[in-house]
Amino acid sequence: MILEKYSFGVGDRFAHQGKAQLAAIMKANQDGIPVVPVWNKSNREHTTIKTVPTSVRVEAEAAVQALDWQGSYHVDADHIRMKNVDLFVDASDFFTLDVADFMGSSASTNELQVFIGYCEKYIGELSIPGITETFTITREGISVIARKVLLAVKEAGKLYRHLLEKKGEGNFITEVSMDETDDAQTPVELFFILAAIAAEGIPAQTIAPKFTGRFNKGVDYVGEVAQFTKEFEEDLAVIAYAIKEFGLPENLKLSVHSGSDKFSIYGPMRDAISKRGAGLHVKTAGTTWLEELIGLALGGGKGLEIAQEVYRKALERFDELCKPYATVIDIDPKKLPTPETVDGWNGQQYAAALRHDQDCAEYNPNFRQLLHVGYKIAAEMGEGYYAALRQYEEVIAENVIANIYERHLKRIFPAE
Questions:
Q1: Do 279 and 6 touch, CB atoms closer than 8 A?
Q2: Angle CA 266–212–83, to nearest 5
Q3: How many domains does the chain have?
Q4: Residue of 103 and 72 predicted with greater confidence
Q5: For tag attachment on the chain, is the N or C end more exposed, with fewer CB atoms within 10 Å?
């Protein structure tokens, strides 16, 4: 199973916007952007909403059938670990192996020595085509990197072999994720991470490294765009070199996580992959749920009431909702509107505060981030919320399509 050059991860927490999401993908394809959809939903989201992984497959297949989509599509077991991988085996064909918890913990002495021996031939000056700087590699330098990353890659290897036994060779796509760590990987670290992945026999088709800056949920990139651009371009160069050097899959590409709404870096990403002819996977962070709230608010009546109630209860439960996402949100409570203020808004005012339009004076990133993590409130509404999604389906779909197509796909991927 081969992942296409451009792929876009679409999360849909409540499994009602599959058709709208696919419609945006199809619109991009009609414009010459050959991107394929990857539906993703994490175990945490399933647990919160009380859904099961098969629901994502059902939603994806229903959308594909309804819109007669003839291209490829995939279902991603998002950020899985050994303790929950079996829940996703039947429903998924794309597995994001999340081994960030093992980064920084050392493998055994014997494993370290074997890996260092495997990499000894790179001691000296390392030159990577596409990177101006030449890197001095020492045995001690390899040892430092190995103590930091080798155990994590070996855990990825265990996960991959478990999946291989369950699903069979060639029947799934493997991504290795190391983005949820404290520090960005240097080009040299990424090079040796890829060496370790090859040594473990993992046919990784995407790699999700950590970049400098903050990738907060649902809002723009926070950091130095020039620094991100340098890291992104260098990572592309490392991957291209590692494919040849280690015999990794020829379609191995970068994966950018929490990639939704990072408008300030889309231009540099698009320019870089265009220049190199490289592929790219972007995984979005559940922002379809925010488009649902926007659609409900714009629908007025009961829809607006539900949107207002979600905010009111989210504010009341601020600490509970924010704690699991503390490392990926930055909310200034002083800049949050009062529930009474929001209850007085009409649908247009609510949408303006929530929609990620940086040219709009009413846009409030604090309001947006709180609602982003507040999906648990809607889940607790049960059938009342789902009934509203059905009632206001048309206006919600318009917003979902516009968000994915106009704000994301057109900005990220070049037409070919």
A1: yes
A2: 95
A3: 2
A4: 72
A5: C
- Give alpha helix (H) positions in 221-336: 225-246, 263-276, 288-299, 301-316, 318-322
pLDDT value of position 79: 85
Residue showing tokens 């175990």:
43
In a domain, 103, yes or no: yes
Q: Answer whether residue 183 shows pLDDT above 80.
A: yes
Could you please report the per-residue DSSP string of 353-384? Answer: HHS--TT-TT--HHHHHHHHTTHHHHHHHTHH
Amino acid at 188: V
| 338 contact partners, CB below 8 Å, separation of at least 6 | none
Q: What are phi and psi of 229, to 5 degrees?
A: -60, -45
Number of neighbouring beta carbons within 10 Å of residue 211: 22
Rounded to whole angstroms, the Cα distance separating 218 from 295 reads: 17
CATH number assigned to the domain comprising residue 111: 3.20.20
For residue 49, being part of any structural domain is answered with no
Q: What is the span of the domain harbouring residue 187? A: 93-284
Domain boundary among 284, 317, 341: 284
Report residue 104's pLDDT band, with 50, 70 and 90 as the boundaries: confident
Q: For the chain, give the mean pLDDT.
A: 96
- Is the pLDDT at 285 greater than 80? The verdict is no
